[in-house]
């Protein structure tokens, strides 16, 4: 697919099908994410939105259909393959190691080694460089944290989410997927995460946002992908539809126009 | 991270006082301070009760007495940090002593070759535990309980139930002593401290070590970060095995015979040292430095109680009380910090 002005979607899916035994979780879903946008994916339980997201993040392999990254067909078999191509996912259950410090979490699995023989022979970590870089990331995203040597478990829920988001933002080259980023957070901390997602957008990274939180979705999203019964039944914007109309489409009470 | 080499502003600094650093130094905020204070208090108390306790030769004896269990406890710490536990380490150690002794005495192999084969076998037994934990997804407790019995049985079958005696001197080398400034120091003690230092470095200063903590902390997060969890766990159990093999070599040096029925409580003694040091049995929190302190606390207690003339039976009682106190203090501290 190409837009009127010749752009290509950052991430596109065509006719994705995924069956689990008798259950069809995805029944020919299409999907597009355009450069620089925040796209919310909403849907009732069982609509297939988490299956869709898992397919896009490489956590499952769809039975049919294709996924294109910047117009090129890709076949992710693991989340690592998606990550290598610049797709970072912030998981709902906060994939952080609580006893490790902020810098270690930001660099987990991608640690920096010292230059010279200390790094190449003794495999010594460059903790200073990782701390500084982590501090820079946290400061850029305005996540107020005293020191990057602090263990993640000493942080509040919102700050922990901040670490997970900063980690994704730091490594994502193409897009960030966020699965229910406010699920475990209070009102004030949700506001923090909202600002954080805006800052990621301001960096030019598109964001896929999966959320049940309608006010949050309407506050942030440029477009809203509505998933129902394994298909995309509508794409709306916060301007074109009201919150209750979107909920009605999502539940089947209102036909998608 | 697009350009990690860009000049950056320095991260905020922590207070640099020694106490503050000890408080902060451990991953997960676990303190080295508590066990260290306990060790120093124990040393002070026994020092005041017994004239002999603080004499340098007695202090070197304490280190020599803890070298076997201390070395086992290094491997145990690695496994416990991943959220596992190893009940088979004593059995693996004893199997290694029999194997090395038999290879050298019965088969007449050169001692260095017997040692290498022994260490390879020990690493192999560790790897078997690792494969069972990662491939069959069995709980480490069950796997190593099974391995404890299997290895013990192999040891008895292979040795015919009898000790191997009249071992070549080279096989007993780690029990030998050298003089340093008027002190007699056992080679095995030095090797134990070196193993602690190496494993400390690996755990604190390399990605491999950070991944050990990450796996013990949140295995799913580790997996999603691209850490090959199964391969890493296999590496931990296999290197644990090699370390148990080295402990076997130390044991030979100390007792000078290979006894298939030796070391029966070593597995629990090594867990005791880890726990008294303050490493969490739930994984992801702790340090080998803590384990060294834990092993020394047990050693000081046993040696000190002997010197002040208390029956050996009470030493085990004291160790038991200490285990419960250590874990209770740890839990209490954790509840307070949330």
Describe the structure.
- The complex is a heterodimer of chains A (257) and B (338).
- Chain A has a single domain, classed as 3-Layer(aba) Sandwich (Rossmann fold), CATH 3.40.50.
- The mean pLDDT of chain A is 90.
- In chain A, helix 6 runs parallel beside helix 7.
- In chain A, the strands form 2 sheets. Chain A has a 6-stranded mixed β-sheet, with helices on both faces. Chain A has a 4-stranded antiparallel β-sheet with strand order 2-1-4-5, with helices on one face.
- Chain A is of the alpha/beta class and 257 residues long.
- Chain B is mostly helical.
- Chain B has one domain: ABC transporter involved in vitamin B12 uptake, BtuC (Orthogonal Bundle).
- Chain B is built from 13 helices and 2 strands; from the N terminus they run H-H-H-H-H-H-E-E-H-H-H-H-H-H-H.
- In chain B, strands 1-2 form a two-stranded antiparallel ribbon.
- Chain B starts with 17 loop residues before the first helix and ends with a helix.
- At the A-B interface, helix 2 and helix 5 of A face helix 8 and helix 9 of B.
């Amino acid at each position: 697919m190409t837009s009127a002005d010749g752009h290509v979607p950052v991430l596109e899916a065509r006719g994705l099908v995924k069956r689990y035994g008798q259950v069809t979780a995805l029944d020919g879903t299409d999907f597009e994410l355009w450069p620089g946008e925040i796209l919310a994916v909403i849907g009732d339980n069982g609509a297939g939105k988490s299956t869709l997201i898992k397919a896009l993040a490489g956590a499952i392999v769809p039975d049919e259909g294709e996924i294109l990254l910047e117009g090129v067909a890709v076949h992710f078999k693991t989340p690592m393959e998606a990550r290598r191509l610049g797709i970072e996912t912030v998981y709902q259950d906060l994939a952080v190691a609580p006893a490790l410090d902020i810098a270690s979490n930001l660099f987990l699995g991608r640690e920096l080694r010292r230059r010279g023989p200390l790094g190449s022979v003794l495999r010594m970590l460059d903790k200073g460089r990782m701390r500084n870089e982590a501090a820079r990331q946290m400061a850029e995203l305005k996540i107020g944290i005293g020191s990057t040597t602090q263990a993640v478990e000493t942080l509040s829920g919102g700050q922990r989410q901040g670490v997970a988001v900063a980690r994704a933002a730091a490594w994502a080259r193409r897009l960030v997927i966020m699965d229910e980023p406010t699920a475990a957070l209070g009102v004030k901390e949700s506001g923090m995460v909202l600002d954080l997602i805006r800052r990621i957008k301001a960096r030019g990274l598109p964001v896929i946002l999966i959320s049940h939180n309608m006010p949050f979705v309407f506050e942030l999203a440029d477009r809203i992908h509505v998933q129902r019964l394994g298909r995309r039944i509508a794409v709306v914007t916060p301007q074109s539809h009201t919150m209750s109309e979107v909920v009605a489409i999502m539940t089947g009470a209102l036909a998608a126009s | 991270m697009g350009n990690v080499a860009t000049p950056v502003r320095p991260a905020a600094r922590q207070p640099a006082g020694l106490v503050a650093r000890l408080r902060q130094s451990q991953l997960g905020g676990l303190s080295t301070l508590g066990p260290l204070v306990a060790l120093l208090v124990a040393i002070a108390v026994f020092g005041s009760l017994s004239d002999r306790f603080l004499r340098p030769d007695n202090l070197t004896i304490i280190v020599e007495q803890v070298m076997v269990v201390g070395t086992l406890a290094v491997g145990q710490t690695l496994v416990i940090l991943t959220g596992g536990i190893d009940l088979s380490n004593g059995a693996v150690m004893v199997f290694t002593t029999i194997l090395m002794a038999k290879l050298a005495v019965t088969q007449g192999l050169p001692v260095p070759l017997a040692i290498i084969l022994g260490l390879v076998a020990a690493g192999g037994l560790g790897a078997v535990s690792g494969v069972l934990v990662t491939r069959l997804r069995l709980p480490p407790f069950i796997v190593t309980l099974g391995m404890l019995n299997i290895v013990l049985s192999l040891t008895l079958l292979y040795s015919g139930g009898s000790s191997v005696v009249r071992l070549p001197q080279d096989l007993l080398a780690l029990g030998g002593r050298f003089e340093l400034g008027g002190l007699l120091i056992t080679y095995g003690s030095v090797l134990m401290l070196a193993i602690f230092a190496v494993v400390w470095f690996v755990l604190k200063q390399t990605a491999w070590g950070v991944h050990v903590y990450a796996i013990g902390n949140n295995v799913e997060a580790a997996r999603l970060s691209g850490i090959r969890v199964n391969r890493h766990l296999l590496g931990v159990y296999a290197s644990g095995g090699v370390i148990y093999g080295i402990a076997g070599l130390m044991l030979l040096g100390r007792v000078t015979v290979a006894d298939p029925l030796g070391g029966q409580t070593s597995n629990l003694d090594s867990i005791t040292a880890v726990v008294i040091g303050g490493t969490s049995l739930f994984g992801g929190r702790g340090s080998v430095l803590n384990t060294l302190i834990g092993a020394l606390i047990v050693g000081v207690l046993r040696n000190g109680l002997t010197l002040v003339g208390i029956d050996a039976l009470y030493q085990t009682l004291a160790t038991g009380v200490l285990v419960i106190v250590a874990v209770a203090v740890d839990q209490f501290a954790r509840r307070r910090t949330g």
